[in-house]
Design brief:
278 residues, Rossmann fold, SAM-dependent_MTases_sf, 23S rRNA (adenine(2030)-N(6))-methyltransferase activity, alpha/beta, RlmJ, eight-stranded mixed sheet, binds S-adenosylmethionine, two-stranded antiparallel sheet
């Protein structure tokens, strides 16, 4: 039973971290001309209306609204794909009404030879995703993203980038993600894998990190943001594992995050380290 809907959470602080990393990884990989096969294992519906009842109920879009409000003070040029993307999706430039999800961020960055395969299991989300993808050179598969990814590897293109972004509605997903990541890496060791996880008071994400740490995987960088004023319920932070980040990614991504960490912006601390060095 799938009950999670990203429309309640689009544009939150975790999306900013995740989509900032996604656009930076892709642009760094695209410094080389060879084609990239991109996979989005849990894609959502691609475009979110921030004025919808769902978005207004939680008001989690405060993350992207704050980023937008402080955009002129962002020092890192690596925010440009995000600010330009937000600008192109929004006619009203004062307050954002539309937020693009991961397939839309991928799509904006694709070059002629690159490809994107997006998995989504929820029937209505998958339908919306398929409608959006029509005519956009995006393959949508209405199937389990973890099993589906393994069926597609090794990729047809020389290089691989994968976003694994489940809703973690079921506790077993933490272990499933770790197992899938290892199997995917065994099929394509040079791929760049971005794995998002929530940081909750339950601490369930620790099992995912531990499983990865004990695996044969190499070169895994970890970024965690921790809210200074966490809500009573829900996420207190947000994490990313990046397997095989492009050289220099850690410094450039940390600079991006430093731009928005202060109390005037999103108000969090950033911890980062090599979970597994080379
Ligand atoms: N990646 C999206 C983004 O950044 O805009 C957000 C994805 S949301 C966190 C997780 C999505 O995974 C939901 O849309 C949910 O319906 C979908 N989902 C849940 N279980 C799935 C599965 N086994 N395979 C593929 N999609 C699944």
């Amino acid at each position: 039973m799938l009950s999670y809907l990203h429309a309640f959470h689009a544009g939150n602080f975790a999306d900013i971290q995740k989509h900032g990393a996604l656009t930076l990884v892709l642009s760094m990989m695209q410094a080389k001309a060879s084609a990239i096969a991109c996979f989005d294992t849990h894609a959502g519906s691609a475009i979110y209306d921030l004025d919808s009842e769902r978005a207004r109920k939680t008001a989690e879009d405060a993350g992207v609204q704050k980023l937008w409000a402080c955009r002129s003070g962002l020092r890192s040029e690596d925010w440009q794909p995000i600010t330009q993307g937000l600008s192109s999706f929004n006619v009203d430039k004062e307050r954002l009404g539309v937020y693009p999800g991961s397939p839309a961020w991928f799509r904006r960055s694709l070059r002629r030879g690159d490809s994107l395969t997006a998995f989504e299991l929820h029937p209505s989300e998958s339908g919306q995703l398929a409608n959006w993808a029509t005519g956009r050179r995006v393959r949508v598969l209405h199937e389990d993203g973890l099993k589906g990814l393994l069926k597609q590897l090794p990729p047809v293109h020389p290089r691989l980038m994968v976003l694994i972004d489940p809703s973690y509605e079921v506790k077993s997903e933490y272990a499933d993600v770790a197992k899938t990541l290892l199997k995917a890496w065994q099929k394509c060791r040079h791929g760049v894998y971005l794995v998002w996880f929530p940081i909750l008071t339950t601490g369930l994400h620790a099992a995912l990190k531990q499983a990865v740490k004990e695996s044969p995987l190499r070169k895994v960088w970890c970024s965690e943001i921790h809210l200074k004023t966490p809500p009573e319920r829900g996420m207190t932070g947000s994490g990313l594992l990046v397997v095989n980040p492009p050289w220099g990614f850690d410094g450039r991504f940390s600079a991006m995050i430093d731009d928005i960490a202060g109390d005037q912006a999103l108000g969090f601390s950033h911890e980062h380290n090599w979970l597994i060095p080379e």
